[in-house]
Amino acid sequence: MYSQFNKKIGAIRFKVEQAFGTMKRRFNLARARYFGTAKVQAQMCWAALGMNLLKAHRKLKAMELAGVGAP
């Protein structure tokens, strides 16, 4: 029962877990840097912003290498 469920959600879960793993490695999110909910939330928001910028950079770089888009 569980193995069938895991196979169905595995592809989606992989992408989400991969993003969290990258955030932990690249943005040092193994532990919260601050005390307090607001500060920790702000830290996570900045990390998510950094992750989105990293993804955008990679996508633009891939498009540049493929020769797609304006020079």
Biggest β-sheet strands, sense, barrel: none
Straight-line distance between termini: 52 Å
What is the overall number of helices? Answer: 2
Structural class, by secondary structure, is mainly alpha
pLDDT < 50 runs, ≥5 residues: none
Order of helices and strands: HH
Helix coverage percent: over 70%
What is the overall pLDDT average? 88
- The radius of gyration is 17 Å
Percent strand: under 5%
Approximate shape: flat
Explain what the structure shows.
Helices cover 79% and strands 0% of the residues. It is mainly alpha-helical. The chain has one domain. Helix 1 crosses helix 2 (37-66).
Considering the chains and any ligands shown, give keywords for the structure.
single chain, 71 residues, mainly alpha, 79% helix, 0% strand
Short summary:
This is Transposase DDE domain-containing protein. The protein is mainly α and 71 residues long.
Which helices and strands appear, and what pairs or packs with what?
Elements: H1 2-27, H2 37-66
